[in-house]
Structures are given as structure tokens and as C-alpha cells.
Amino acid sequence: MARFGLVLAMALCLTISVFPDTTTAHLRHNVYGKSCPNVEAIVRKVVQQKVKETFVTIPATLRLFFHDCFVNGCDASVMIQSTPNNKAEKDHPDNVSLAGDGFDVVIKAKKALDAIPSCKNKVSCADILALATRDVIVAAKGPSYPVELGRLDGFVSTAASVNGNLPGPNDNVDKLNKLFAKNKLTQEDMIALSAAHTLGFAHCGKVANRIYSFNRTHSVDPTLNKAYVKELQAACPKKVDPRIAINMDPVTPRTFDNVYFKNLQQGKGLFTSDQVLYTDRRSRPTVDAWAKSSPAFNAAFTKAMTKLGRVGVKVGRNGNIRRDCGAFN
Q1: How far apart are CA 192 and CA 326, in angstroms?
Q2: Is 218 a catalytic residue?
């Protein structure tokens, strides 16, 4: 996961933080009950088909949702394509590694919905992404949860607005807590959402410093499991293409589960920002508790995902429903 220029973007962020409840009050579970009653089944069918085509759809969609919500809120602004006059969010260095399959599943779901006359241009891209995210978690054997709906698509998407708003692989607990608190998320929410790293992959370039040049005293991060270091060095030898992919979870990389926390207990967190959740005494008790109890973790994760889906929601004149998820109307 990589990490909301200018006066307009800053104003939007201020609005989000000062008036958090006026927008979330518009979210509910049956927004499309009359206009598009089968919206969830339609999106789910598209997701299931896409997952059959490629597993990457699962981590790609989950990561896309997180990156969207943490930059100016859950408004599908990360979907916008850049133009000659505007470099959009998706082309910021922190977002260029977002896999295309996440974008593709939203676009395909939008097409499927628009093929039904009563649903055409009735469901926002932001809501489609929120639904698809829940559905990919379920596809990976994770928990299901009711998705609040009623988001509109945003009017702004700039690469500059991404700066400083997404977690970095070397962040410590203080930095992570501060970043999540900006979005009304607690330390417990942060730990739960970090466990999305139980799925998918990262690139060798993001972990090279931990296994070859950690600091002046240690070439290898001493918090890393020694056997795991050898695995990582074999997968990411020196001078390898930094774009080579490695699993985030070395044990169950295709299953959404609490093994992520068990890995942290054993020194097998891929990023520094993962392992610090265990080495920091403030977060370790939560890691230990969720390593023991899958139900407790699942409950915390679904609660955190619901709260994440409320971040910076656009309603009324602050948004619309895009005809094309990749372009403003």
C-alpha cells in the first residue's frame, strides 16, 4: 500500500474532517431498492466472474478501495484518467502500482448495471467499488458484511492530492495512527485494515532495504525471522528487477484470514509497517488477540471497513453519478 494540490484539495479535506457526520447520514443499505433492486447481485456476479479469470482481482480491488478512500474520501476519484490538463490520482507514484484488474472489475460492473434500463446511470462508481470490495473479500473466504450505499462520485482527482495521505511501507505506529486518525479511524481500525496484507503481493523494491541495507548497524532488519529473510533474499536477490512480485503473506497468500497476525508473531511481516504492529507494545496485544481469534478479527475488520467506507463521502451538489467511471461527466 502506497500514501489528499492546492487550495481546492485542501478545502475538500477540511470539509471532510470538520463535517464528518452530515455526509455519512446519507448512507444506508437499500438506497437502490426502487431504482436498481438487484444491484448487489449484479455486481457480485461480475466480481465472481472476474475472480475466476484472475486471482489478482481480489487484492487489486481491496487496495483500490483503500487508496480511493484515503485520498479525498470514497468518491471513485482514483478511477479518473489523466488528461493533458490534469494529472489524476492514479498517476501519482504511490498509485501507479495499482493493478488494472481492480479498475477493470468496477468498469465491467458499471457496464452490466447500465445494460439494465432501470439501473442505467443510477449507481455511482464509488458505490460499485465499495460493493466489489466486499465481494472480493468474500471470494477470498473472508467475512461478508452489509455495505452502506449512497455515495456520489467526486469532481476532483489530482496526483498532488495523494501526497502524504497513504501509508508507507516503512511507517511506524505513531505515523500510522496519525494518518488513520485523520480519517476518523482508531488504532484498532488501523491494525484491522492493515491485515488486508494477508492477500496479494508487493514488489521487491519495497522490501530490499529490510533484507540488504537496513541501517549502519544491521544489513538485515533484526525484527525479521531469519528463515524468512532467506526466503525473501531468494525471491529478491540483489540487483533484481524491483518490480518482481512477492507474496505479502508467505503462508496463505490467497486466503483472507488471521494468519497475517500469526506471521507478525513469528517475525514474518513483509513491510516494516506490518512488523511494527507486533514490536510496538501499544499494538502487540491486539495482534496477539486476533492471532488467537479469527471471529474477533473478522468482527473488527468488518467494523473498520464500514467506517472506512464513510470517509469523505460526497452527497448533494458535491458529487454526481458518472457515466464513465474513468472520466468526469
Answers
A1: 30
A2: no
